């Protein structure tokens, strides 16, 4: 059996996953020089350079990347088998989540998760964009990518946009339009443009595109006269709406009526963004108890909160 030095292999996995010699040394409870020695030993054994070091920048070589992807699963399986044999189930699980989903949906539910599964040690990794499905980043993910080889993806939510504003702004809107405050009386898309529109770049990566598409879904057009306030992130637009600055677009995981009594969902149409959110994990790790616990919890909460039925 042609096996490399296992200690060197463990060091390589840690450096590749953490993208840092110093962080790997800290995780392995050894010195940085010891990690460097093990990597050199492995490179000599393999006859390949595994890392490129340019100043403070560290990256895997193409050969190193291929090797990491091939050995990471094997090391995880060895670790899982060892933990099971020794009766150890406590293990930190890294969960990478898109920032808005993390702040507005996951974090408010964490106390319930911790109470239900006290042995689950969860580490949240918040990402500004769609996370790369790689064990170098995390063990589980919330992603917009439904198909990636080697990963299982469970649908959580198909995104829909709708309009909201503060209670105070709603009263002002009704007074200006001379209409009732009854939320059962529909509000036309054209009427919205008489008021400041709070636009979030994050939905479509283009200024004002969220409102163009939302109005277009009702066969209306964003007029040049419309007052559009631009924000880089959906969380900023939501906070501006909360402070009576205009009408924002949001979705089902960003807005929770019982916990947002100061906000009003306007009685008008919805618009699909075309994005779907998935819970993802490496298929080869499907039997790991911690991953299955988190998977079942996320899917259950998605059903309870209505995300899986919000289409």
How would you describe what is shown here?
This protein is of the alpha/beta class and 311 residues long. The chain has 2 domains: 6-85, Arc Repressor Mutant, subunit A, CATH 1.10.10; 89-311, D-Maltodextrin-Binding Protein, domain 2, CATH 3.40.190. The protein has helices spanning 6-18, 21-28, 32-46, 62-85, 99-106, 110-116, 167-177, 189-192, 209-216, 234-242, 289-304, and strands at residues 51-54, 57-60, 92-98, 121-127, 140-143, 151-166, 197-200, 228-231, 247-250, 263-265, 271-282. Strands 3, 4, 5, 6, 7, 8, 9, 10 and 11 form a 9-stranded mixed beta sheet that branches. Strands 1-2 form a two-stranded antiparallel sheet. The N and C termini lie far apart (53 Å).
What is the topology?
Blueprint: H1 6-18, H2 21-28, H3 32-46, E1 51-54, E2 57-60, H4 62-85, E3 92-98, H5 99-106, H6 110-116, E4 121-127, E5 140-143, E6 151-166, H7 167-177, H8 189-192, E7 197-200, H9 209-216, E8 228-231, H10 234-242, E9 247-250, E10 263-265, E11 271-282, H11 289-304
Parallel strand pairs: 3-4, 3-5, 7-8, 7-9
Antiparallel strand pairs: 1-2, 5-11, 6-9, 6-10, 6-11
Quick synopsis:
The chain has 311 residues and is an alpha/beta fold. The protein has helices at residues 6-18, 21-28, 32-46, 62-85, 99-106, 110-116, 167-177, 189-192, 209-216, 234-242, 289-304, and strands at 51-54, 57-60, 92-98, 121-127, 140-143, 151-166, 197-200, 228-231, 247-250, 263-265, 271-282.
